[in-house]
Amino acid sequence: MKSVLKFLPAAILAVGLTLSAAPATAQQAGAPPKASPGAIAAAKEILALKHASAMYTNAVPGMVEKVKGTLISQNLNYQKDLTSVAPVVVQQFAGREQEIGEGMAQAYAREFTEQELKELVTFYKSPLGQKLINAEPKAIEQSMAFMNSWAQSFSEVVATAFRAEMKKRGKEM
Question: pTM to 2 decimals?
Answer without folding.
Answer: 0.67
